[in-house]
Structure formats: structure tokens, C-alpha cells
Please model this.
Amino acid sequence: MTSLSPSTTWLGLDLRWAYESLLPAIWRRTLCVHRAQDVLHDAFLRYALSQRPSPLRQPNAYLRVVVQSVLADHAAEAGRYVALPQPGVPPSPEGLAELQQRLAAMQKLIDGLPPRCRDVFWLCRVEGYTQPEIAQRLGISLNMVERHMIRALLDLRAARERLAP
Model:
């Protein structure tokens, strides 16, 4: 008598394939098993929450596309953080003083932006909101969010060029 294996499909996806084939491929891209698992699980959530009018003919292929999107989002998020010069070693007092001076100079530049540009820049670049989320949060159009962001970036670039030796 043969025993039937429990179903390994979920919303049309072959979960065995996802964990045995897709997860190792993600791991090769991230070089971290925990990050790879996070990416796969985020992709599962996006897959489950996506609005599809009819069942997908190739759900595994669609999941691969979702994984690529999640990987891009994770890379963008990771790019917001800067590692210390020597991982695991606290900065020297001189290095810490330099970092504090640079942060104070950056804060001064940001404070010099027009108020709405400053709000949009802060929400986008520091807090990580998307432009549509910022538009909704501030009660302005997406076009205005884009204009404020462009203005903030141009003003900050000009200020940086004035300060560069």
C-alpha cells in the first residue's frame, strides 16, 4: 500500500519546488540563508496578496518574477545603510567626531530646504516611504511629490558642490 504524500501546493504553487530549487537560487544571490528565507517568504506574501483575475497558468514562473522584485527591494533597503569602516570594531574617537561633523553638516543642508521639499525628502530617503505613500500622507498629488523630491535633490547637490574643496 502506497501512502499519499501531503499536498505540497499552495495557491497553485509547488512548495517543494520553491524550497528545494528556488530557495537555493535566492541564497546564491544573497549569500545568507536567513535573508534568502526572508526574501522567499516576502515573495509568498506578495504572491498571495496580488490581485489576479484568474488562476495563473504558470504560478512558479510568476513567483520567480515576484522574487526578483523582492530581491530588488531588499537591495534598495540595504543600500540605505552604511557599514562602519571596520565591521565589528567601534570607530575611533576621531572617526566618531568626523562622523558627527558630517551628520551635522548634512542636517544643516536638509534644514535649509523649503519646508515641503524637506518633508518629502525626509519621508522618502530617511523613512523609506514610496512616492504614492508620501502623496497620500501629505495630501498632495504624486506629481507634486516628484517635483518636491527633484527640487530637494537639486538643492542638496548644489549645496554639496559649493562645499566641496
